[in-house]
Amino acid sequence: MAEFKTALLMPDDEELPLEDSFFELGMTSLLLTQVKQRLEDRLGRGISSTALFNQPTVERLTDHLASDVLADIFDAN
């Protein structure tokens, strides 16, 4: 997810660990809030603030977004 790499100041060619917690990656609550806002803007959907803490890895958050936030898009296929 580009938004996480941007927040973490990671170069494009560096691989983002999908199974490490956001906090293990160096994210703070403030950075997570900024990522949430950018994801909402990009997806055109609201994301629960608690989702970022209940789904504390990129992998789990991606699964949550696909199954809950964007379910109508993925169910249509």
Automatic annotation (TrEMBL):
KW Transferase (keyword) present: yes
> Which residue spans adopt a coiled-coil conformation according to this UniProt entry?
none
Tell me the ranges covered by the Carrier domain, including all copies: 1-69
Give the InterPro entries listed for this entry: ACP-like_sf, PKS_PP-bd, PP-bd_ACP
Keyword Transferase assigned to the entry: answer is yes
Ordered alphabetically, the record's keywords are:
Acyltransferase, Phosphopantetheine, Phosphoprotein, Plasmid, Transferase
Broadest EC class? transferase
Superkingdom of source:
Bacteria
Documented EC number(s): 2.3.1.41
**Gene Ontology BP terms:** antibiotic biosynthetic process
Q: Which PROSITE patterns match?
A: CARRIER (PS50075)
According to the UniProt entry, its GO molecular function terms are: 3-oxoacyl-[acyl-carrier-protein] synthase activity; phosphopantetheine binding
- Which protein are we looking at? Phthiocerol/phenolphthiocerol synthesis polyketide synthase type I PpsB
Natural source organism:
Streptomyces lavendulae subsp. lavendulae
Protein encoded by which gene: ppsB
